[in-house]
Write a structure and sequence with these properties.
mainly beta, four-stranded antiparallel β-sheet, two-stranded antiparallel sheet, 2 helices
Length: about 120
């Protein structure tokens, strides 16, 4: 069994088209990879970070942005994906990363459903 990871461990980073570096931290039940995977079945890097390959679609605060993407089947749009990033240094429940970098990915989910279909991670 793998040892537990600290919440602030960066699993991967992505840059959006404006050059912002967005870490996806291992996280907790409240944010990051653990939250997206456990609460929304978004458990793979590719679909979680695909929306970052663009610019923010909506700023919900001065430091938080939503990015929208689409999962395709046979080249046709099938499921809309939203990934949310926090560009501040304090995350949910006051979490502050010891590395001084932004919090990064808060969540990623398939719009209109609680859990993404299994194939989204494949």
């Amino acid at each position: 069994m793998d040892p537990p990871q600290p919440w602030y461990k960066i699993d991967w980073t992505t840059k959006d088209w404006d050059g912002r570096t967005i870490p996806t931290r291992h996280g907790t039940d409240d944010f990051g990879f653990v939250h997206a995977c456990n609460d929304h079945s978004m458990c793979a890097e590719a679909p979680m970070t695909a929306p970052y390959h663009g610019t923010p679609d909506k700023w919900t605060s001065s430091t938080r942005a939503e990015y929208y993407g689409v999962a395709l089947i046979d080249g046709e749009p099938e499921i809309k994906i939203t990934t949310v990033a926090e560009f501040g240094h304090v995350g949910p429940n006051g979490a502050e990363a010891p590395d001084g970098k932004v919090i990064g990915t808060i969540t990623s989910y398939c719009q209109g459903m609680t859990y993404c279909p299994y194939w989204i991670n494949g």
